[in-house]
Amino acid sequence: MAVCVAVIAKENYPLYIRSVPTENELKFHYMVHTSLDVVDEKISAMGKALVDQRELYLGLLYPTEDYKVYGYVTNSKVKFVMVVDSSNPALRDNEIRSMFRKLHNSYTDVMCNPFYNPGDRIQSRAFDSMVTSMMIQVC
Amino acid sequence: MVDAVLFEFLHTEMVAELWAHEADPDPGPGEQKMNLLVLESMGFRVGQALGERLPRETLALREELDVLKFLCKDLWVAVFQKQMDSLRTNHQGTYVLQDSSFPLLVRMASGLQYVEEAPKFLAFTCGLLRGTLSTLGIKSLVTASVAALPACRFQVVVQRS
């Protein structure tokens, strides 16, 4: 379902980026990069509105003709960006939220791993296999 | 409640192990500092991981004061099963957190005995605070001081660049 998944650090460099290897992957990298601006806009807009209850899930960032891009930010300002195929109409908000929740849980596990230095690229195989399960799922 | 005791014992052993090699003929103040630095950096890494895991769904940490309150309430309860007793600030980046009966010191003495040895047992916790603050986006310097066991205070100075 997900065509590309990216984990971006607080300083806006990618910690992990993986896409379905069928097409020009650079296009996905570029989409993730442009979506960072939208994420920053959403974060700062929420801050100014003085909302008491802020959500981690940012929702649909922007749609293009083939793909939709969703965002999620954690308390430590680490951003998750997911690019999803538009041709799948049955993909509901709940499912996207649950996918982000799984990503967040796996990222927390990576952080707690003593062999991982915060700020390095994520090389954990467990994280890889969780992302693969999210990408391969085709309904 | 068994996990609290496990952490206390582990922490005591960590400190004891680092200081067990001080039987060298010429320890010097450098050695002491190395050990304190090792403890503090261990605490820092643990704090970084905790800072990611604890505030899972709460994104209400908008300001610095909110983050400090989170430290005093949620972090302290998670690690030591009690809340911090008082938090004071000068609103210019310095915060003083006071704990009148710090669990890692409470078993040692209550009074002035062992006050010189107390800093060794506070280094890990200083690192813990610094690590959690750094994951939540605040660069800081944390020091601890003890006037009389088991009360201690942690001073957090936020470094704004």
UniProtKB/TrEMBL annotation, chain A:
Predominant location category: cytoplasm
Superkingdom to which the source organism belongs: Eukaryota
Compartment list: Cytoplasm, Perinuclear region; Endoplasmic reticulum; Golgi apparatus
GO terms under biological process: endoplasmic reticulum to Golgi vesicle-mediated transport
Phosphoprotein in keyword set: no
Stored Gene3D superfamilies: 3.30.450.70
GO cellular component assignments: endoplasmic reticulum; Golgi apparatus; perinuclear region of cytoplasm
Keyword Magnesium: no
InterPro entries registered for this protein in UniProt: Longin-like_dom_sf, Sedlin, TRAPPC2L
Keywords: Cytoplasm, Endoplasmic reticulum, ER-Golgi transport, Golgi apparatus, Transport
Family classification: Belongs to the TRAPP small subunits family. Sedlin subfamily.
PANTHER family in UniProt: TRAFFICKING PROTEIN PARTICLE COMPLEX SUBUNIT 2
Name the record gives this protein: Trafficking protein particle complex subunit 2-like protein
Native organism: Phyllostomus discolor
From TrEMBL, chain B:
CDD domains tied to this protein: TRAPPC6A_Trs33
Assigned keywords, A-Z: Endoplasmic reticulum, ER-Golgi transport, Golgi apparatus, Phosphoprotein, Transport
Keyword Amino-acid biosynthesis found: no
Alphabetical list of InterPro entries matching this protein: NO_sig/Golgi_transp_ligand-bd, TRAPP_component, TRAPPC6/Trs33
GO biological process: endoplasmic reticulum to Golgi vesicle-mediated transport
Free-text function comment from the UniProt entry: May play a role in vesicular transport during the biogenesis of melanosomes.
Protein name as catalogued: Trafficking protein particle complex subunit 6A
Gene name per UniProt: TRAPPC6A
